[in-house]
Amino acid sequence: MTAPATANAVQEDAAGHVLAFPAADTARATRDSRPLRLITCGSVDDGKSTLIGRLLWDTKAVKEDQAATLRRDSNGKQNDLGLPDFALLLDGLQAEREQGITIDVAYRYFSTDKRSFIVADTPGHEQYTRNMATGASTADLAVLLVDARVGLLEQTRRHATIATLMGIKQFVLAVNKIDLTDYDRARFEQISHEFRELALSLGVRQVTAIPLSALKGENVVYDGRASMPWYDGPTLVEVLELATTRSAQTVGFRLPVQRVSRPGESFRGYQGTVAGGSVKPGDSVVILPSGMVANVTKIVTFDLVRNAAVAGDAITLVLDRQVDVSRGDMIVAIDSQPLTGLAFDAHIVALQPDGIQPGKRYWLKSGSRRQRVQVQPASQLDLQTGKWEHAEQLSMNAIGKIHLVFDEQAIFDPYEQNRTTGAFILIDPDTNNTVAGGMITAKRSALGGIHTEDARVILSLPADLADQLMATELFAGRREDAEVRRVSAGKASEIIDTIDG
Amino acid sequence: MPHTHPETELHNPQSTKPPLDPHLKALENEAIHIFREVAAEFERPVMLYSIGKDSSVLLHLARKAFYPGRVPFPLLHVNTGWKFAEMIAFRDEIVKRYDLDLIEHVNPRGAAESVTPFSHGSALYTDIMKTEALRQALDAGQYDAAFGGARRDEEASRAKERIYSFRTPDHRWDPRNQRPELWNVYNGMVRKGESVRAFPLSNWTEVDIWRYIQAEDIPIVPLYFAKKRPVVERDGMMILAEDQRLELLPGETKRDEVIRFRTLGCFPLTGAIRSDATSLDDIISELETATVSERQGRAIDRDQSGSMEKKKREGYF
């Protein structure tokens, strides 16, 4: 056995049964950040279950009685390193164990000395786009798995596209089963190069590619230097430990009001979780949709009256005057307000067999606000080509662009700017089921017919400048709206000249 | 002006403790958000209160979520009649101290048909005295939302449970047909008779629970701390031998051991562990070097693989 990880991790008897785990590390330090949320994408063939199982195993998140149950369930079936079948550890529902597939999003927890992690474990099959979207909605980072022998697949593009659409900006490309290529460095570099190009076309710049063997535990938690002296980059866990958690602290203050607290005549507070920016006593705020203005006098929590609150904090806000505020309203910074209006554009993922029907009225819930909305599909993303095609309706697992029309004022930020106030779900009033997850892209002009999106601008730029522009989040978010042609400088001036004609 | 509440009254007198670390703060914020959302969206919420460590954390978070108001829903304790005596004493003290509304329900079949964990076996006993009793209590109160302290890291089928977990009018859970749950936008729409189980602690791990209890100084049942107690060995478990209803079987002997409990339920079905952990620090360091999971001491989970999933489908929490 070449893998030092495996040799150190567990003691085994001659038959390969695990006898004892190493003593866990001494008491862990307090965590200096919130848990990192990540999603793993890849199919069973890529070794996804083995990778997650390996993460849980090597960080000692699996306990002996769970391992014993695992051994019992796998009928002594073990992999060639004497470890139990990790996939059984992960597939919790009986139907999944029976069919040997993962049918739903599962959440796993593990931690290291530096940080704790929540993994959304989602199935990789095409028909489970909806599960991937669910897992990606809260993730800070995506781990995309590929088989080193196979390289990038169509599904790699699909997963990267969905993850990007859901707002994930950090990617790890886990080039798994590198041991089966005899640790072929050139192969690894070729795959990671191809992926970087793909990522760039999606506007993603934070990519770490890692050659690893989940089965042998190389470059997952423990380094694989013994087998891959040529790789001096981080292990998967090291990347996860250093990844940034998303935060909405730099945008305007937003407090979607969940409930009004009136324990007695003398106290009136607005309870909610800060969805963006920060607030302190003395700040001027606007209540939307009414537009009334007030000043913050106090931020109340159980522990103390605070002098500031930031995105993520669950607080009770007290204002300096009696204003009409109810559940579903949003209290926002006076100098940085969200978009309000009756018509918006959005991306959605259709989650149910009935799909999304044109003209149908749904419930839309965003934050604490629920209102009726009429939905008009406009186009659908072809996940194989990356192009948007015209569409009248969206079937299950489709990613589409839609127009939203409200009866009453709606309040949003573009999802690109705020993943809380830009996100919504659609609920079918007939079934009460959640039928779509959506992300606001823009507010539509009230002037029906004269859409600014009909006006176009042709730019002629040096290739390097164009590449930089196309790599920006802003551009990537609307990549499908742009037409790009690479031509010679001479050809470009020829075209431009024709226009001026 | 109505807002001129004297500021000192808003200060919690106990709050001289240091702020929570960002990890626990994030978990706390998420739980408070869920509490407020459910309380605002549903007409008749109730909180399942089992007196254990997770329930203690859940209650603490509820108090925080609605401060300076009262907890705006009752607590429901489904009692089997076979809980540890110390648990009941603790429960009554907490209800009094925090001015809570407690509803206690015991399945009348227990007394009528003499259902005990000894006579009926753990599986049937649990089905009647816990699952069926819970359904009776939820029906009686016509609750449309019930908070529970379940965590996704506890057991494999729980890992797929939603934060808002939809239940049919007969309280069934259909794991293959769950509503998708994206971001922190929860779908609370139910028809009459349908309900939602809400799990504010979904993303907490056992270590998080203990670290939070320590950081927030949350009172817990003393059985969690090691002490010399009378025990008897049965079915590979050490059972507390204090209750007079526990009859020793041939060959069994009572002896004193320094033990504590990692989870608390019905005393005849809950195994103690040998431990010297007499403080929260001890418990946390014991846990961080533990090699078995907490549910290992629970007889009802071990009947068969997937047994928790089966019980949950039938309405168990």
From TrEMBL, chain A:
GO biological process: hydrogen sulfide biosynthetic process; sulfate assimilation
Binding, GTP: 42-49, 121-125, 176-179
Known function: Proposed to provide activated sulfate for transfer to Nod factor. ATP sulfurylase may be the GTPase, regulating ATP sulfurylase activity. With CysD forms the ATP sulfurylase (ATPS) that catalyzes the adenylation of sulfate producing adenosine 5'-phosphosulfate (APS) and diphosphate, the first enzymatic step in sulfur assimilation pathway. APS synthesis involves the formation of a high-energy phosphoric-sulfuric acid anhydride bond driven by GTP hydrolysis by CysN coupled to ATP hydrolysis by CysD.
Keywords on record: ATP-binding, GTP-binding, Nucleotide-binding, Nucleotidyltransferase, Transferase
Originating species: Ensifer adhaerens
Pfam families according to UniProt: GTP-eEF1A_C, GTP_EFTU
Keyword flag Nucleotide-binding: yes
Xref: CDD domains: CysN_ATPS, CysN_NodQ_II, CysN_NoDQ_III
Subunit note: Heterodimer composed of CysD, the smaller subunit, and CysN. Sulfate-activating enzymes, NodP and NodQ, may be physically associated.
Stated family: Belongs to the TRAFAC class translation factor GTPase superfamily. Classic translation factor GTPase family. CysN/NodQ subfamily.
Residue span(s) of domain Tr-type G: 33-249
Highest taxon of the lineage: Bacteria
Molecular-function annotations in GO: adenylylsulfate kinase activity; ATP binding; GTP binding; GTPase activity; sulfate adenylyltransferase (ATP) activity
Protein name: Sulfate adenylyltransferase subunit 1
Transmembrane segments: none
Metabolic or biological pathway: Sulfur metabolism; hydrogen sulfide biosynthesis; sulfite from sulfate: step 1/3
Stored PROSITE patterns: G_TR_1, G_TR_2
Catalytic activity reported: sulfate + ATP + H(+) = adenosine 5'-phosphosulfate + diphosphate; adenosine 5'-phosphosulfate + ATP = 3'-phosphoadenylyl sulfate + ADP + H(+)
EC number: 2.7.7.4
UniProtKB/TrEMBL annotation, chain B:
Gene3D superfamilies (UniProt xref): HUPs
GO biological process, one term: sulfate assimilation
Alphabetical keyword list: ATP-binding, Nucleotide-binding, Nucleotidyltransferase, Transferase
Start-end of Basic and acidic residues biased regions: 1-10
Gene Ontology molecular function terms on file: ATP binding; sulfate adenylyltransferase (ATP) activity
Domain Phosphoadenosine phosphosulphate reductase: residue ranges: 45-271
Pfam families: PAPS_reduct (PF01507)
PANTHER family assigned: SULFATE ADENYLYLTRANSFERASE SUBUNIT 2 (PTHR43196:SF1)
Purpose: With CysN forms the ATP sulfurylase (ATPS) that catalyzes the adenylation of sulfate producing adenosine 5'-phosphosulfate (APS) and diphosphate, the first enzymatic step in sulfur assimilation pathway. APS synthesis involves the formation of a high-energy phosphoric-sulfuric acid anhydride bond driven by GTP hydrolysis by CysN coupled to ATP hydrolysis by CysD.
NCBIfam families the record matches: CysD, PRK05253.1, PRK12563.1
Name recorded for this polypeptide: Sulfate adenylyltransferase subunit 2
Native organism: Ensifer adhaerens
Taxonomic classification: Bacteria, Pseudomonadati, Pseudomonadota, Alphaproteobacteria, Hyphomicrobiales
